[in-house]
Specification:
This protein has 311 residues and is of the alpha/beta class. It contains 12 helices and 8 strands. The relative contact order is 0.14.
Length: 311
């Protein structure tokens, strides 16, 4: 059944361009002060094991909540990324670097010490490697399985430059969730993700399900970069047509003056509209959609979905 949600005048005003006053954030983007003692415990453990997190490297606004609860999204093969996407705060490094063979062991140790029920493992783009880092993902999953066999594992991977053999190697590790973010609508790809490819991302997600039918597929994107509502609806339809189960939608927040500016702050009711459209009209298992949503935010909820939609 087609849903219809009409926004009032107040909501419509919140969707207008904010380029003249991009530094002003609305009330709904303010986060609670974190519990510094618990944040310190997580940060100290990560420092002790010499591990990177996307929480820190990408300046995630939820770092306080996640670190305080003892969770983190591990960033492997970094922190330098071989791509310089204008929305991202991760450092650019195009130099060829060897993989650290001890990293999978250290990551598994962190998962064990933190007693994680669900872990998210992501990486920078490593276009300098023939397999884009697929072998490192495989080793990380293998080591986590050895030390924490009950932990569910979510991999948030780059596009691997369309190397489908590398994708198969990643999937041969048998993660519970395979996540690859599409990031933005098709019309903004050259501006937002110049080294990416919209169709390649969709193909990766579709091939994932075809090669490993029991995996749960996931993708995410940002609002506030200049997209129209119709483009967002088309993007959701494209993801569903390429066998995506779960979608995350969040507000883009510019990391600094050298990055793309925010074009609009999207209100919570509009985020909820996209959630309902995705779940009720298109049949996604879950659409997590709010201003502060990020691709790994509350990722542990996948365990509830796995029970509800077993494979």
């Amino acid at each position: 059944m087609l849903i219809k949600i009409y926004l009032d005048e107040t909501d419509q005003s919140n969707l207008t361009s904010i380029s003249k006053n991009a530094a002003t954030k609305p009330e709904w983007l303010r986060v609670k002060a974190p519990q510094f003692e618990r944040i310190g415990n997580t940060a100290n453990l990560l420092s002790d094991l010499k591990l990177n997190t996307v929480c820190q490297e990408a300046s995630c606004p939820n770092i306080g909540e996640c670190f305080a609860s003892g969770t983190a999204t591990f960033l492997i093969m970094g922190p330098g990324c071989t791509r310089a996407c204008p929305y991202c705060d991760i450092n650019f490094d195009r130099s060829k670097r060897d993989l650290d063979p001890t990293e999978p062991h250290r990551l598994a140790e962190a998962v064990s010490r933190m007693n994680l029920k669900h872990v998210v493992i992501t990486s920078v783009n490593r276009d300098d490697l023939d397999d884009g880092g697929a072998s490192q993902f495989f080793q990380c999953v293998s080591e986590v399985r050895k030390k924490s066999p009950e932990t569910t594992i979510e991999l948030l991977i780059p596009d691997l430059c369309g190397n489908w053999k590398a994708l198969e190697l990643v999937l041969d590790s048998k993660p519970n969730v395979l996540n690859h973010n599409i990031e933005t609508v098709k019309g903004l790809y050259k501006k937002v993700r110049p080294q990416g490819n919209y169709q390649r991302t969709l193909d990766l997600l579709k091939r994932t399900r075809e090669y490993f039918p029991s995996v749960y597929t996931k993708s995410g994107f940002m609002l506030g970069l200049g997209e129209s509502d119709d483009e967002v609806l088309n993007l959701l339809s494209d993801l569903r047509n390429h066998f995506v189960d779960i979608v995350t939608i969040g507000q883009y927040l510019s990391p600094g003056p050298k990055h793309l500016p925010v074009q609009r702050f999207v209100s919570p009711p509009k985020f909820n509209y996209f959630k309902l459209f995705g779940e009720d009209n298109l049949g996604f298992m879950q659409v997590v959609s709010s201003p502060l949503t990020r691709s790994s935010y509350h990722a542990e909820e996948i365990q509830k979905l796995m029970k509800k939609y077993p494979r």
